[in-house]
Write a structure and sequence with these properties.
single chain, 358 residues, alpha+beta, Beta-Lactamase, Heat Shock Protein 90, 3 domains, 5-stranded mixed β-sheet, 12 helices, 12 strands, 47% helix, 24% strand, disordered C terminus, binds adenosine-5'-diphosphate
């Protein structure tokens, strides 16, 4: 009999330890209150998430401080009451709270349990999605309004050939802008869904940069800019998706051309440090204000929306460049001085990266 009792006690103690360990390490917060609203049990996550202090020792104090209009009696005694949910914001964090009555074996209420989940990341992603949809709609609406306006004007009136050509040119430009926007969006979405897994090969970064410069020669000449390219001797071959890296270089170089005045200077350096080769593109263009530097990799972010849209930018070029470099274990860094110029450094690995399966 004593042995049986000992066994039972040991089992109870083991279970208690297990539950305590689970509560200690749970990322969700748990608080159990007794019928008087006193805390019976609380785990560290609950204290941390709700930023509780030792004085917050009862139901009333805790939830009135959080501005949650909830009543312990209502949870315990209201007929057909099963559970309720509330959302609170503590500092920058968003929390979801789930209240439920605690009952004993005879279905008699003994208190209330609250489960607290941190949903900050979920709220952030949801806001990003909403902003993204609003941005896409706005970006598409602007050229569509223009196209419709000019097309209707042409249809309604009689115009000489010169005016007709002028209107048709606007329509063509706006249609091209929409096409570029949709192509860029599709490309981003394919990166997001991991659909683009460019084949990695070894290639010469200096050669690629020179080819990109040639591809943009017309734009460079149009603005009468000087572009100089310096390639350090013996840069090892890089190992990456060549088409992707070409896209990155074209995006960055065409930004330098776009955002640098006529007769401006652009210098390109290709070299290597440790296991990375780098391309540094320096322009003496309009520069980027310091407060915008952290945001320019965000989708649709443009420093001066109206002006950069006029220049044909979609605000997606740098986001695409970053996605491509992330996929190729590379990196991109931008330094800039407003009114003086911008320096972009792209790094691409020179050796095959060994993937470690965890
Ligand atoms: P966009 O298609 O508008 O050029 P990007 O994503 O390539 O979009 O760039 C985002 C914004 O960063 C641009 O709209 C521009 O305001 C700024 N920017 C990028 N590169 C430069 C640069 N070399 N000089 C000045 N501003 C730049």
């Amino acid at each position: 009999m004593t042995r049986e009792l000992k066994e039972n006690l040991r089992e109870v103690s083991t279970r208690k330890n297990q539950i305590e360990t689970i509560l200690l390490h749970m990322t969700d917060g748990i608080i159990a209150f007794n019928m008087n609203g006193r805390i019976e049990l609380i785990n560290p996550a609950a204290t941390r998430l709700l930023r509780l202090i030792p004085e917050d020792e009862n139901f009333e104090k805790i939830f009135s401080k959080l501005n949650v209009n909830i009543n312990l009696e209502k949870i315990i005694y209201l007929e057909n009451w099963t559970s309720t949910e509330e959302r609170v914001t503590v500092g920058d964090n968003h929390m979801h709270m789930h209240f439920a009555p605690l009952k004993n074996e005879d279905d008699i209420p003994t208190g209330v349990i609250v489960v607290i989940q941190d949903i900050t990341e979920h709220v952030r992603l949801n806001n990003m999605r909403k902003e993204f949809v609003a941005d896409v709609s706005h970006e598409l609406k602007t050229p569509i309004t223009s196209i419709m306006g000019y097309a209707d004007t042409l249809l309604e009136g009689e115009y000489d050939k010169e005016t007709q050509d002028k209107f048709l040119n606007v329509i063509a430009t706006e249609a091209r802008r929409m096409a570029k926007l949709v192509t860029d969006l599709l490309e981003l979405s394919r990166y997001d869904n991991d659909e683009i897994k460019g084949e990695k090969t070894e290639f010469d970064l200096g050669e690629l940069v020179k080819q990109c410069q040639e591809k943009l020669q017309i734009e460079i000449e149009k603005k009468n800019q000087t572009v100089e390219c310096f390639v350090t001797a013996n840069v090892p071959a890089v190992f990456a998706d060549k088409d992707g890296i070409e896209r990155v270089v074209l995006n960055i170089l065409s930004n330098s051309i776009k955002y640098t005045k006529e007769e401006g200077n652009i210098k390109i350096y290709v070299g290597f440090v440790y296991s990375d080769a780098y391309i540094k593109i320096i322009d003496n263009g309009i520069g980027i204000p310091e407060e915008d530097l952290t945001k320019i990799f965000e989708r649709f972010y443009r420093v001066d929306k109206a002006r950069t849209r006029e220049m044909g930018g979609t605000g997606l070029g740098l986001s695409i460049a970053k996605e491509i470099l992330d996929q190729n274990s590379g990196s991109i860094d931008i330094k800039s001085k407003f009114g003086a110029g911008t320096e972009v450094v792209i790094k691409v690995p020179t050796k095959k990266q060994t993937s470690i399966d965890l």
